[in-house]
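Lecture 7 notes. Example A: sequence first, then its structure tokens.
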Amino acid sequence: MMPPDSDAEKKQNAFANFLYSVRSDVYFICPRIFRKGPMVRFVIHSGLFIALTVLSQVGGLAWLVAVNFKNRLLVFFGTYALLCVLSSLAAPVFGRIPLACGDDSPLVVRSWATCALNRHYVTPDLHAALTDLATALAEAHPGTVTLVLDANFPFWNGFPLLPHLSHDDGRKADIALFYRDGSTEYLAGQTRSPIGYFAFQQGPTPCRNRMLDLRWDLDWLQPVWPDWDIDADRTRFALQWLAQDGRIKKVFIEPHLTRRLGLSDPKLRFQGCNAARHDDHIHLQL
């Protein structure tokens, strides 16, 4: 005679039966809904179209082309690359031109992802102002590289560049802070995070820690980044230059950084507690 099952064995058998029933239900449902349901396919493709459009402005159009082919990913990437090239040629019609990507000039876009997602377009006037700033910095502090983070999409005023609240007309751009390794060596062309954002310089703030706004403190992420300090001379020079240039209307920077650098000017403003922090980058606009 077989010995009766123990309580532990009974629980294991019951759990195994539960998993088997779940697997059977999923096998029964998924082929009918996820593989054959036209409405679900429509929702999935619509979601991808919206997400790719929000990310890159032209990615959704590339996906609409790719869904008609068997090798969708291959067609998508090929179509997307073609659309990016065409965007750079058509953008001047909309009053925007691309910033340099991967160049050796004093002004360059920080991340290849920014260029790949078409987030590096500005008006000719802003392009000229950024170039003049980078040139002045390189002359005053030889070897300085001015890094652009996010700028704008190539087409249409009012098209949002999320998560930014105002990068929608070609007249705004973010540049990275300038960093030193300890207190000695300037780190040319480098930022604390790979994209230049979310590595904050800590300091006093009037803002409370709230969930439903864009001021993300990301305390859990800060230990990941190298412990570099800002290059005070270069950062001060950049802010003073921007404040004195007649083309620049506003510059957003956290108040604790302007106090630390000994600066005070009506153009150097606090962006408010509902917008993203500006002690990892400098926002400027015409």
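Example B, a different protein, same format:
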Amino acid sequence: MNNALHEMNVRGHIFRIMPIYLWHATHAKGILLNTARLGQGIVYSISYIRELELDGAITSYGAFNSNPDKEDAWEKIRLAEFPFLPTRKHSIFLFDCSDDAELACRTWFANECRLIVKAQIVVGSTVHIADTSWLDCEPDQWESHARAYWRGEVTNSPRREVIVHGPVYFPDWESEPFGCSF
């Protein structure tokens, strides 16, 4: 891939796409695959949509995560000290290598049918790269680990995720598995 930004016209809107491939672990029967096809590769994070028109919109992760108290603790620190970073609750999660996406599928989503798809960040989206190893902690460590997570500190065994607020481009949107998958 060359290092230049790629410009795309999607329904009269120009999007500048960063020249780096990332990876997303999406539900095999999830709405993202259809949304990407309908949006000609562009999918907006729910966090972005909430700001524009639907403040009640929520991701399946935001609705059904296994530890909402921990997510609330992380969000409280983010809002107080790092309000310029994207929320974990409604953003799009990516990985900077396919191996990390595969590991997430085996560990976090072991009971779900997930597919790994390529993604690219659209210029202007808010991005945070964090080490998810900080999340592996007891409640008495949540506050200190949340701060380290939001500062972008890295543990001795990093597992990096890329949190995106705004549009993301899925370059393979014209081929399977994208399209209606219900």
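Note on Example B: The chain has six helices and nine strands. The mean pLDDT is 88.
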